[in-house]
Design goal:
six-stranded parallel beta sheet, Rossmann fold, alpha/beta, Dihydrodipicolinate Reductase, domain 2, binds nicotinamide-adenine-dinucleotide, about 40% helix, seven-stranded mixed beta sheet
């Protein structure tokens, strides 16, 4: 297969490395609005079949079978529409869009689209998170009372990234919100969220926070507890705990868990700590791409449609309003689609 990749920044350049390692991908066509980034990726993979082109239009005309979008969040809706209008199955990185308005408009414009769109929530392909979901689905855990999802980044992104990211809840917490929905099979009805700024000034400048917490109430009464920060110096801490009336499970509590136990004599976790999404989720990204290739081949429907992905965006939108207005916010107050 010939696959296109748009956006070659922090994650796009890393995705190129993963995609090149998938045997079913015979060639890759890459582009970024910054030509030097395209050149860098092409140069790094000279031995493999990676072609660089100077625009999205050139990529759309290059004979690719499907496209992966890893451009900045503000560019997602326009790029998804261009790919779909060109008749190409598309995988777009999370979140769907920078705002609820832009996400709802994209969904409206995609109505009746003849090709599938998949939203990139790679945690759904993480073996331990998938096993936690299976434990809920099988009934092993009984009824879920509490589900905690934690994403602690080791370092803040650049000010330029934060400016177009959609904010902490939509950019970072959205992974947790998607996992809460996916694992419980429940929809959120209300959130109560807060946040703080103790790091770089630019977060405040962009009306964002560098640390946040949210309580999410689900339709069946299960409570989600989400914790996020941009300043977890020890490493990239992504964990999921599901507590039920019969049993409890956790994902992400392995030797790479970036934490130091203070009990005398306890040596777990032995490390080294997970550094960032690149090492923590490499196998999950690969599995996500392999699933996308099956979508491109028409062998299965999109496992996470735009409508599905947008549900996590609405939880994020409600959290942002809750933080701003210091009150619980119901999802139906913010939902536009
Ligand atoms: N799944 C994950 O765990 C994960 C992790 C990090 C980032 N992301 C998502 O991936 C996306 C990119 O994040 P990043 O950290 O790589 O950001 P980044 O700022 O490092 O890179 C974005 C790249 O997109 C390019 N770009 C922007 N608009 C473009 C357009 N219209 N056409 C072509 N190129 C364009 C920029 O020049 C830049 O090189 C974001 O939406 C982010 O939310 C997902």
């Amino acid at each position: 297969m010939r696959i296109g990749l748009i956006g070659l920044g922090r994650i796009g350049a890393f995705h190129a490395d993963t995609l090149i390692g998938i045997p079913a991908i015979e060639s890759l066509v890459v582009t970024d609005i910054v030509p030097a980034r395209t050149k860098q990726v092409v140069d790094r993979h000279q031995a493999q079949r990676v072609d660089g082109v100077d625009s999205v239009a050139a990529l759309l005309a290059s004979g690719v079978d499907g496209i992966i979008i890893a451009a900045g969040t503000d560019a997602h809706p326009e790029l998804v529409l261009s790919c779909v209008e060109a008749g190409l199955p598309t995988l777009c990185e999370k979140p769907v869009a920078r705002s609820g308005t832009a996400g709802a408009e994209l969904l409206r414009r995609l109505e009746g689209a003849p090709v599938p769109v998949q939203i990139g929530f790679q945690r759904r392909y993480d073996a331990a998170i998938a096993a936690a979901r299976a434990a809920v689905v099988s009934g092993e855990l009984g009824w879920v009372n509490t589900i905690r999802s934690t994403t602690l980044d080791p370092e803040p992104p650049s000010p330029e990234y934060v400016a177009v990211s959609g904010g902490m809840f939509r950019d970072c917490g959205v992974h947790d919100f998607d996992v809460l929905r996916w694992v419980t099979g429940q929809e959120a009805v209300e959130v109560y969220a807060t946040g703080s700024n103790r790091g770089a000034d630019f977060f405040r400048r962009y009306d964002d926070v560098d640390t946040s917490a949210a309580i999410v109430t689900f339709a069946d009464g299960a409570l989600g507890v989400v914790s996020n920060t941009r300043y977890n110096a020890r490493g990239y801490d992504v964990r999921l705990e599901v507590h039920g009336s019969k049993d409890s499970v956790a994902a992400g509590v392995d030797d790479g868990w970036p934490i130091r136990a203070t009990e005398p004599g306890v040596t777990f976790p032995v490390g080294p700590p997970h550094q960032f999404f690149m090492d923590r989720f490499q196998p999950a990204f690969r599995a996500e791409f392999e699933t996308f290739l099956e979508v491109v081949a028409g062998e299965r429907p999109s496992p996470c449609t735009v409508a599905d992905g947008l549900e996590a965006d609405w939880i994020a939108e409600a959290c942002a309003r809750s933080l701003q207005e210091h009150r619980p916010v119901r999802i139906e107050e913010v939902r536009l689609a």
